[in-house]
Specification:
50 residues, flat, mainly alpha
Length: 50
Amino acid sequence: MPELGQFLKEKREFSGLSLKKLSSVTGISDSELLKNRKWYSKKTWLGTSL
């Protein structure tokens, strides 16, 4: 089962967005996005309460 953090990264990259561009579009700092992606990478889609 793919990890959520990896899934989100792949979707962002598929959309052609850099972390900085996603930060600009969402209004969330790039460091916060990266921190959350790393946290979600430790979790799986199922079997873990988010």
